[in-house]
Amino acid sequence: MGYVQQIRQLVGTRPIILAGANVIVIDQFGRMLLQLRSDNYCWGLPGGTMEPGETLEEVAKRELFEETNLTAIELIPFNFYSGKEFYYRYPHGDEVYNAVATYICKQYDGLLQGNPDEVLDVQFFYLNELPGNCSPPDLPIIQDYFRLIREGKGVL
What we know:
There is one protein chain. The protein is α+β, with helices and mostly antiparallel strands. It has a single domain (about 5-150), classed as Nucleoside Triphosphate Pyrophosphohydrolase, CATH 3.90.79. The protein contains three helices and eight strands, in the order αββββαββββα. Strands 1, 4, 5, 6 and 7 form a five-stranded mixed β-sheet that branches. Strands 3-2-8 form a three-stranded antiparallel β-sheet, with no helix packed on it.
């Protein structure tokens, strides 16, 4: 049983603060990797919550591998997110306030394959062809990335 499940046994569905990390994976064609999540049926970034003793970078690498079968060769810090905008209520009732470290990964290895326990599908999308049903906690992060691209700041 993971850390979050242990906490949930104590507090039920009440709001908790979750520290975690996610990864914006960009392929050689400039496409962004998204996964169709099995918990809310929305497309989102690979990522998840921190286990005791992990660094944020370790979380990002572990979650990327667990969810997509890709191994990050290099992770570059992008931004940190928290606050009211990162409150989320999952369809099953759990409430969270996310504190998220986001990394960019353009160098990775492995054969793309979603973990059937957490992911319904994984695909790379061109930035102008992203699916409309993005996961609410990931949407502001994806929008930040797009804003920087549109402004010509080239992200890394």
